[in-house]
Amino acid sequence: MGILELTTILMSLAALFSLINLRLLKLPQTIGLMILALSLSIIITAVGAVYPQVFKTVTEITKEFDFSELLVNVMLPFLLFAGAISVNVHELLKDKLTILLLASFGVVFSTFAIGTGVYWLVQQSVFGLNTIGLTYIDCLLFGALIAPTDPIAVLAMIKKMNLSSITETRIAGESLFNDGIGVVVFLTLLGIKQDGVENITAAAVGGLFVTEVIGGIALGSLMGYLGLKLLKYIENEHTELEVLVTISLVLILPIISHYFHFSAVLGVVMMGLFLNQNLDIDQEKEGLQKAMGNYVYKFWHLLDETLNAVLFILIGIEIITIFESFRMAYISISLIVIVLVVVSRGIGVSLPIAFLSLFMKFEKKTALIITWGGLGGGLSVALALNLPDEIGKGKSLILFMTYVIVLFTILVQGLTLKKIVK
Q1: CA torsion 135→139→144→148, rounded to 10°?
Q2: Where are the strands (E) in 25-75, listed by range?
Q3: What is the tens place of the pLDDT at every residue in 286-333?
Q4: For the chain, what is the largest distance between any 2 Cα atoms, rounded to a whole number of angstroms?
């Protein structure tokens, strides 16, 4: 099946499921689409039990479709840019220390807490999984891919909450930056896995981490600054040209990042913040224009909603790929790991907030809201699919746990977040 046919199927499903959710389910878009896509996967699996050829055909199509390549190199830059240009950048700058500390400490702590916990669980004979050959580094890789929250899912949810401006910015900023840091930690651990622990030095790991983070931020800032100058030169009347320029910038940045081994995720976020639509009240009084015309922001909002719909349908449908190597023990260990992930995130968020509370003010229960608002998403699934095959049988366990946790965060945490906020 060609790319045109696959794109047609995905877009048609996105339109159909969005309509069903709007008229019948009436749930938040992210949650409604995920439920419908998951239901489709279950129906296909049930039909496949009676007619194996159906299941085989759908599985082949799913495997043929490179989900991780599509998400990481195409969808993610567009979605992150759309999210970054809608965040309140002035609140973000006022609270940059809080956001960076929450994002960095939270991800690193969760990576090691989850990885260590999963390694201990797998070694227990009660689950019968101590023969699948998962090493400690493999478990840390799982911790790194599941620790970051999905900014697309988080931003979609918090827009509908009546949160204060500062709390909303903290949640949005933390989710945008912990994504980039999570990818950097994952790639660092993957390098250790592939090169062998004995061949890796602390200096090499530190160098890789710094190159990814500092390089990504620097490149994003440079391209954002140049893009801002170019858009001001074009002026807001030429909407179609501004759209073309912003699309080009979002496509070019990941290519340059890949060449120099910078973090494209952090780069796109920084570029989006430079082209942000939010102006200070004082600046508005002085008659300063936004970087882009309103129609350009509307275009990116439309693209964001469309890609969001396709993304969560893809996540729901991709679950078909794990049914082939499923074991009953995966369910019990996944339920324990859900608790481990939530508790690890809670501690990783609460400790920085407790420390920062000595110097600045936080709204009551901010740590709880940020913890429960940490929804998983497509990035975790894409990173899990990108794991090397030398992990062996353990890869199917990691994939299953990743899907279960992403589904739990979106369906359970997403549906109850509004009540917890209230």
Answers
A1: 170
A2: none
A3: 444 566 778 888 898 888 888 888 888 887 777 777 766 667 788 889
A4: 69
Among 40, 39, 20, 38, smallest CA distance to 29 is for 20
Quick check: 256 and 222 in contact, CB under 8 A?
no
Rg of the chain over all Cα atoms, to the nearest angstrom: 21
| 8-state DSSP, 8 | H
What is the CB-side half-sphere exposure of residue 303 using CA atoms within 13 A? 21
| pTM attached to this predicted model | 0.85
Q: What is the Cα–Cα distance from 42 to 55, expressed in whole angstroms?
A: 11
Instruction: State the first-to-last Cα distance of the chain, in angstroms, to the nearest integer.
Output: 47
What is the C-alpha separation between 186 and 233, in angstroms, rounded? 39
Q: Which amino acid is at 278?
A: N
Single out the residue of 359, 371, 381 nearest to residue 413, CA to CA: 371
Cα dihedral 308, 312, 318, 320 in deg (nearest 10): -160
Cα gap 249→257, rounded to integer Å: 12
Task: Check pLDDT > 50 for residue 285.
Answer: no
Per DSSP, the residues of 260-314 read HT--HHHHHHHHHHHT-S---HHHHHTTPPPSS-HHHHHHHHHHHHHHHHHHHHH
Token couple for 154: 């988080």
Question: How far from 89 is each of 43, 253, 280, CA to CA, in Å?
Answer: 44, 21, 10
Determine contact, residues 293/242, Cβ cutoff 8 Å. yes
Q: Residue 399 corresponds to which amino acid?
A: L
Contacts of 240 (CB under 8 A, 6+ apart): none
Per-residue model confidence (pLDDT) at position 326: 65
Query: Please, what are the domains in the chain?
Result: 3-64 (no CATH), 67-421 (1.20.1530.20)
Share above pLDDT 90 across residues of the chain, in percent, rounded to a whole number: 25
| Six-digit token string for 51 | 């007619």
Mean predicted confidence (pLDDT) in 354-364: 86
